[in-house]
């Protein structure tokens, strides 16, 4: 019951903070719009994004709001269609990385002893390996990376930082009275972890999810840009790949390169705004700063 009340208070404080903080609200609205486009891209795609059916190199027009590529494809349709893969990679990698971080970080803190030593050493090893070069090596060795292969590579390389944070937080909570009382009642470790320990860590877990999703957006786009993804798939990263290979900026087709770049920046900004908001909820040291800023804004 204590854990449920704690979880309810946390969720209530998160909801109030999102309503009060404009940055968080903007991030949530942008992410919701992109998620709708990702789920039903056909509603927002006026043309077949792969069809080479139009005059190549057309500029802005009513028929083509972002012009066409040098192959005669509609750029706006490609941006809308590419939203699905880019957003889904962010959400799936964020979710799986967070689950792995929770399992490893919280287990290390709760069980302690040799389990903590082994899991902490494993986390530290993964943490110090240069991430992006490792991703390039893995994907280059496996040739063209499919969607799920890219998800796997990004999850394997993206969980360690969150696990370290969650371990530290779990260590600070491990000897609280309500956890000691649960163990004294004879509750199982799974009950103590999932019902008593994790609810107070909700905001930090959400912040880690958003951070992992942001990492996935940038890493996946970078891999696709250098040609290590599936270059025939519809995503913002592959749009940048084809634009760069066909010298879009030099041939007077800047929107072919700028549109997916701006889309990546918008998605990244939405995740960063939400991440900052949840980090402020999880970190009490940041709250007085925001309150003082809010009071100064009201007085002004």
Describe it.
The protein is mainly alpha-helical. It has one domain: MetI-like (MetI-like fold, Orthogonal Bundle), CATH 1.10.3720.10. Helix content is 73%, strand content 0%. It contains 13 helices and no strands. Helix 5 (131-141) packs antiparallel against helix 6 (147-158). The longest helix is centred in the first third of the chain and has 37 residues, at 75-111. It starts with a helix and ends with a helix. The mean pLDDT is 81.
What is the strand and helix layout of this fold?
Layout: H1 2-20, H2 22-39, H3 75-111, H4 113-128, H5 131-141, H6 147-158, H7 160-173, H8 177-184, H9 189-197, H10 202-225, H11 236-245, H12 254-282, H13 287-299
Q: Compute the average pLDDT.
A: 81
**General shape:** elongated
Q: What is the count of β-strands?
A: 0
Instruction: Characterize the main sheet.
Output: none
What is the CATH architecture descriptor? Orthogonal Bundle
Order of helices and strands: HHHHHHHHHHHHH
Query: Proportion of β residues?
Result: under 5%
Please write the CATH class name: Mainly Alpha
What is the count of DSSP helices, taking H or I runs of 4+ residues?
Answer: 13
Give the number of domains. 1
- For CATH, the homologous superfamily is named as MetI-like
Task: Report how far apart the termini are.
Answer: 44 Å
Structural class: mainly alpha
Instruction: Give the proportion of residues in helices.
Output: over 70%
* Regions with little confidence, pLDDT below 50 for 5+ residues: none
CATH third-tier fold name: MetI-like fold
Over all CA atoms, what is the radius of gyration?
Answer: 22 Å
